[in-house]
Amino acid sequence: MQALQLFLQQLINGIQTGSIYALIAVGYTMVYGILKFINFAHGDVYMVGAYIGLFTVTGWMAQASPGPQSAAALIFCMVGCAALGAFIERLAYRPLRNGLQITDAWPWALFWALYFGLFLGPVLEQNSRLLSSTAFFLVTAVAFVALLPAIRSLFRFLSPRLQPSRSRLAALITAIGISLLLENQGQAVFGATPQAYQLKGIGGTVDLHAGVVHVNISTGQAIVLLAAVVLTALLVYIVRYTRVGRAIRAVSFDPEAAALMGIPTDRMIAMTFILGSAMAGAAGFLNHALTRINFDANVGIGLGLKAFVAAVLGGIGSIEGAVLGGLLMGLAESYTGGSSLSSFRDAIAFIILIVVLLFRPAGLLGRNVAEKV
Amino acid sequence: MERRVLNISNLQVYYGAIRALDGISLEVHQGEIVSMIGANGAGKSTTIRTISGLVRPREGEVLYEGQPIQRLPAHQIVERGVGQSPEGRRVFANMTVRENLELGAYTRQKHRAEVKEDLDRVFQLFPRLKERLTQSAGTLSGGEQQMLAIGRALMARPRLLLLDEPSLGLAPFLVQSIFRIIRDINAQGVTILLVEQNAHQALRIADRGYVLETGRVVLTDTAANLLKNDMVRKAYLGEA
Amino acid sequence: MSTPSQALSSGEARPASTAAQFYGRRLIWLAVGVVCLLIGNAINNNLIDYVQDIIRQCGIAIIMAVSLNIVNGMTGQFSIGHAGFMSIGAYSGASLTYLAAQRMGHGAAPGFGWMLAAMLVGGIVAAIFGYIVGVPSLRLRGDYLAIVTLGFGEIIRVIFENVGEISPSFNFMGGATGFYGVPQLTNFVLVFGSALAVIVLTRNLKFSSHGLAFMSVREDEIAADAMGVNTTRIKVVAFVLSAFFAGIGGVLFAHTLFFQPKTFNFILSINYVVMIVLGGTGSITGAALAGVVLTALPEYLKTIQDKIHFKDEYRLVAYAILLVLMMLLRPSGIFGQGEISLRGVVRFFRRGRTPVTSLTEGLAEEGEQAVEDTGVEAVTAPPIERDGKERPVILSIQNLTKRFGGLTAVGDVNIEMKRGELVGLIGPNGAGKTTVFNLLTGVYEPSEGRLEFDGALLAGERPYAPLQRALLLAMDVLIAAIGGWIITTIIASAIVPYAPDAAAQRLQAFVRWTGPILGVALSLGTALRRRQNRPGLKPYQFAQRGISRTFQNIRLFGNLTVLENVRIGTYLRRRTNLFDGLFRTRRQEREEAASIHKARALLARFNLLRFEHELARNLPYGDQRRLEIVRALATEPKLLLLDEPAAGMNPQEKSGLMRLIRQIRAEYGLTVLLIEHDMKVVMGICERIYVLDYGRIIASGSPEEIQRDPKVIAAYLGEDLGDADGDGVPDGEQREKVRE
After folding, report:
1. Inter-chain contact B180–C738, Cβ cutoff 8 Å?
2. Residue B12 forms part of a structural domain
3. CATH label of the domain that carries residue B58
4. Residue to test with chain B: of A165, A260, A265, A372, most B Cβ within 10 A
5. Among B91, C328, C557, C710, who pairs with B137 as Cys (CB 3.0-4.6 Å)?
6. Chain B residues within 8 A of A262 when measuring between CB atoms
7. What residue in A sits closest to C549 (Cα-Cα)?
8. Per-residue model confidence (pLDDT) at position C671
9. Closest alpha carbon to C665 in C676, C675, C673
10. Mean pLDDT in chain C?
């Protein structure tokens, strides 16, 4: 009965990994649905989520009891990543889409001001008695105020000379640029050493018996699953049944027609980034806080790639498809990993994807739209 | 004197290097139906799209109820009371008829009771839509989709309604009823700016008309006079 | 009766260069190339090793970027797995030289010949994989294809990492740790000789008629297909060619630097995509320059960084920010689609123009015999003469039916057209007119019925010969058996940990056999039915057989010039092949001169020659419609299908169009089938008219008969308006009420 036991154990592991893939994949699928490009930076938003979780659990709230600690960490991760996702959209994707405008000055001023804070903050800290965070914010704020007018006038000069780009390739390269930026800046700030952490008091496992078969589920795994289910259900509810969700779907279907309904399309696109990034942030926290997996600033590349493949597998643009694709991939990897082909674990996702696409070119739940002649 | 709802002066629009509008000026008064006619590429749709904020003019001014709106984003122009039924209908095919209509009322979320009224008003105009309320908009026929597109625009309670080719691709008998409904909507107090290929129909229901050619207004008069005008008869009404 | 080419042969073709000129020019260029290489080599050899390394890296980057540009830039497909082909080239080429070195024993290194052989082998193996990856591209579009190429790259990497598990005899490749002991056989001349060759071949291709066909696929696949371009073949060829060059790049890389499977990861593929986007998608010059800059710049930054003691990450942070800014400020890349050419540079200095040439630059300014303006004049042409003699039937469709799911779009349509006839097809919107056109051009395959054109059966049941069928069946079964065996063997070996030992062996044996058996059963089941009839002809085959069309919503190749659009129309009558294009043979030059001449003559005939170097999308609407007709005529059709040619034209333009259609029919001996809403046009020029309603022909006959037919009046002309809006008042009366 050991074989059955192994089979069930891999099932549980697979669903757990799969639910993490699913949480990341919904972000890819939503952004793709609305802007039709692969947001490569999404995996790196996940990475930032993992780090926010780390700092909350081992730093700011190290003394708190497990309950409030994990709740706070989850909220910090989601809010932090949502803000990051929205900022990325405001900084790069929107100016690319609409053409650079004077109103795009503040994100760029903030962007450069943050670098002033990063580099000059420590200098100020050394020469005064300020706390490092206070010094950082002070320098950033001063730099922001100083930079804003300069960047505004620069953009005023540039704006009429630039055309908005409808090229999806340009959007893709921009996304790659942002992704590289986050990875390397992340490594510069967080260091290159892999990190790991775990929430207090979740080391235990639950032993499930059924006759001679018994399977272990760690408390961590159970929480991951539960949280993933709740979060995806919440997301589906928002997109399906709320006013904002309806507006997002309308923009995704036809941005111009949506604008003619009085829907602020840019705000809805930002909303999409906020929702997707919050999910990725949650995934970053859940995956690492509960299972003690190592991570560094490059963790988003591989995981993001697989999550994106999951989104394509399920049919890109469809949230349900992303969840299905994520689970399928988690299961496939888990079973291959446990088999004698374990060294090909990293390839199995892509093999399945290619086979599925050959038979269903739009993914499992995607609708194939034939071009009208 | 009638109040000017819309006053456009010297509108210039470029698509890349191509000039689409070359100094269009026109005005629409309260309660009117104004038709814009002209060949494809004359700039009718571009004018409409510039008014509704989808296209930015390089020069010129669009005054709506006395306020310049040419720099506002499209959604704010809708909020101010300019509705549009776009060319090619553009209904949200993946959503139900009800969802489409509710999206039309997106800007009026604070006035729930009024939205309900508006819905009834739309059903009065288009009884067919009520029957199809839970059906996906993509499964509607062309005529029904056009009704939905107009109904959807009405849900925002526009004071000015822009209609871009409402007869496009409809069977002749449907064209008749669409034009009748446009007249009814106007009778309810909505000012209408109409763009049409079907010059005959468009002029017959309009109060005044503008004739566009290669991005310019070449002729403007009352609709009745335009119908009698030799040049118009020859060029747009297909009479020798 | 004359074909368009005959009709046009009156003009003089531009004299092609003589053999001496042709080969002389080649030799001079070759000599220039060799001299440049030698000078470069001399300079290179005086540099320090580190710099020499970087220079060779730049050369390899040029090969990779330019070759990726064939797929992504020219053909408009989207590959982000280019490093996968590179690794295949690297591993196969390196294996060859490595094994050769082993055999030779210590001390001896394989010579130059081995290196050339390795490059050839690496290129060919990569090309084979290019074919395998290219085939899915027949089904997948855009980003889905991108993901497949990405997946391919990743699979290849994982396979090379675990290559020892497939067979211990591959252990020499080193698996994940890397391939040690590959002889360092590259040098400056080899790398830059290859890079030059790749650039020259790609450039030849881009500027040839074959290159235009590649670009037509990028611009509009459906229109390209309709113009007789075999789009599926072009896409596969693009992949194969690009993979071949990438394989060579891989071999060069393998003999320059140490490598491991991770070297050729996703990041490297993305790097190459970045190069071509920065350089300008489609521009060879841009790709090559970006390849050099993006390879050399990071190394240069490294030296600065060492001086100012900055964290290493900030080098890449700066690169990332530059990338984002670049996309914001110049999203089309540095060069856009343009190229730098000698001629362009000369002109730049002479006239102060930008050194970016258009594709057709340098054409002799031929006499522009402006033919009378056909655009805006009233119809004065005499009515069609109807000669008494019976003309032969050219098109006959019988019981043609097309169903989409349960919906019958076109049912049981019978149409017969005689050679030289001008026939109209009318009907309300949604009646199925365009569907009939799509059936007539092979865009759709009919669900039932036959389509005969010019004596050949183009659609309908076209059974195989018995022997052919047997062979195909045998092939199907064999492939299914082998495929099934491979799949179940893999599953069988994966299954072990999940079953207890004794059962596992039985299960494995069982599973291993199910594959081939199931495969054979399934393939026989489907193939017996599938292999009964030949597959339907593709649109490009319809075009080759002489059916050409225009589209209801104009489908020109918008980013190509007017002349290029028409030249793509002439492409299907070519006699040259891809190699002529790549090596720009004399045959190619001659054919192209002729094709350009023919295209210009046609443009002149339609008064469009003044726009010849204008991009098609910049043309006024009416001219775009006429250009579509010119493009269709360039394919030398026997039957021309016009889908609403008068849509969006004003009355004068319509009159001009009517006269034009009459003229071209008479001049080129065309048969014309016309879909049109404008009754004036239809009744004015058509000899016969078919009326379609709800997918069925409800009437046919002369314009007079049609106008009198009560069924037609009811369905279409709409005199009897009925009560459509259900308010109890007939619409006809409402119209009157509205007037009051």
Report:
1. yes
2. yes
3. 3.40.50.300
4. A260
5. B91
6. 75, 78-79, 106-107, 156
7. A373
8. 95
9. C673
10. 84
Its ipTM equals 0.92
Which ranges constitute the DSSP H helices of C309-339?
Answer: 313-329
Identity of the residue in A246, A259, A265 whose CB atom sits nearest the CB atom of B99? A246
Q: Is C618 on the interface with B (CB under 8 A)?
A: yes
Strand C639-643 and strand C671-675: the pairing is parallel
Two structure tokens written together for C556: 């020109």
Q: Which residues does C519 contact at the CB level (< 8 Å), separation at least 6? A: C480, C481, C483, C484, C485
Inspect the interface and report whether the beta carbons of B103 and A265 lie closer than 8 Å: no
The region, left, alpha or beta by phi > 0 then psi within -120 to 50, assigned to residue C669 is left
- Specify the 3-state DSSP secondary structure of C277: helix
Contacting residues of C for B41, CB less than 8 Å apart: 620-622, 648
Q: Answer whether C413's CB lies under 8 Å from C401's CB.
A: yes
Helix axes B97-104, B112-125, angle to 10 degrees: 120
User: For position C681, what pLDDT does the model report?
Assistant: 85
Residue from C650, C657, C675, C676 whose CB has the most chain B CBs within 10 Å, to mutate: C650
Mean residue pLDDT of chain B comes to 89
Which residue of A167, A176, A308 is in closest CB contact with C274? A176
> Closest Cα of chain A to C483: distance in Å?
13
Residue B215 lies in a domain: yes
Q: If you ran DSSP here, which 8-state letter would residue C74 be given? A: I
CB contact under 8 A, C139 and A361: yes
Range of the domain at B178: 4-92+158-235
User: Which residues face B217 on adjacent strands?
Assistant: B212
DSSP per-residue string spanning A55-122: HIIIIITTTS-HHHHHHHHHHHHHHHHHHHHHHHIIIIIHHHHH---GGGHHHHHHHHHHHHHHHHHH
Among left, alpha and beta (phi > 0; psi -120 to 50; other), residue B212 is: beta
Chains in touch with B (≥3 Cβ pairs < 8 A): A, C
pLDDT tens column, C623-679: 888 999 999 999 999 999 999 888 767 677 788 889 989 988 988 889 999 998 777
Pick from C82, C65, C45, C614: nearest CA to C287: C65
Predicted TM-score (pTM) of this structure: 0.86
Nearest residue of chain A to residue C439 (CA atoms): A373
User: Which residue type sits at B52?
Assistant: S
Determine the Cα–Cα distance for residues C272 and C292; give it in Å rounded to an integer: 11
Structural domain contains residue B29: yes
**Closest Cα in chain C to B214:** C620
The A-side interface with B (CB below 8 A) comprises 163, 243, 246-247, 249-250, 253-254, 256-266
Residues 73-132 of C with CB under 8 A from A: 78
Q: What is the pLDDT of residues A17-36, one digit of tens each?
A: 999 999 999 999 999 999 98
Q: How many domains does chain B have?
A: 1
Identify the sign of the CA torsion C357, C358, C363, C365.
Answer: negative
Facing residue for A261 by CB, picked from B93, B94, B104: B104
Q: Which residues of B touch A246 (CB under 8 A)?
A: 95, 99, 102-103
β-partners of residue C23 are: none
Residue of C nearest to A185 (CA): C317
Nearest to C621 by CA among C553, C550, C563: C553
Specify whether the CB–CB gap between C596 and C568 falls below 8 A. Answer: no
Structure tokens at C287: 């790709």
Count of all residues that appear for chain B in the document: 240
Q: What is the pLDDT of residues C440-453, one digit of tens each?
A: 999 999 999 999 99
B15 interaction partners in chain C (CB closer than 8 Å): none
Number of H helices, E strands in chain A: 14, 2
**Dihedral over Cα of C340, C343, C344, C349: its sign:** positive
Domain-embedded: residue B112: no
